[in-house]
Amino acid sequence: MRESSEAASIPVSPAPRETLQDHVYRKVKDLILSGEIEPGRSITIKSLATAFAVSHMPVREALQRLTAERALTVVSGRSVGIPPLSGERLADLRRVRNEVEGMAAAWAADAADEEALDQIDRLNEALDRAVDSNDVKAYLHANRAFHFTVYAAAGSPSLLSMIESLWLQISPYFNLLHASGNYVEANQHHRAMAKALRERDAEAARIAVQADIAAAADQLERLLD
To answer: Cβ(183)–Cβ(219) under 8 Å?
Structure first.
């Protein structure tokens, strides 16, 4: 009974019959990136299999891939969760994100087209609405969409893949930043990013994204302490 209730709370649709493992892998990865699996929450293989309407095997294989990528950790033999975040790991992620995401923002300033810039503006408005309505889930979804629209505009699939790997390890912890007021500060950096992209100012775009990363990392470091 508890497994059925847990499965119903996971926001996914049944998997298609083809490439089940890849489908489950992508969908669980989306849940992690969008903050749907919070730190401290464990999810069983059985509940995911029920949610996707598949057998345990493709779920187990998908979770093994995500565990190898350090996006998940085994909590028990049949459940997984978000890996704990140490100060050392946070510092390492901060350094690498600073370089890689800063580079992507700078490249985006040179390469972003009008459609991407308009979408970035719309996502900024969605982020402001989420803060005003105190909607954490809406904020986390819009925040991910905002950043990845910026990074996709850089025009480098290789760079985008690296950033996604980093976000798989850090983004679940963005759930913890709500009470700190970080979301309001982050939106200021987001507006600075959008302005820099409009003005084709690569260095200002780099500085804005690095300021956003630093503000979040500082708050998480305080929480860890």
So the answer is: no
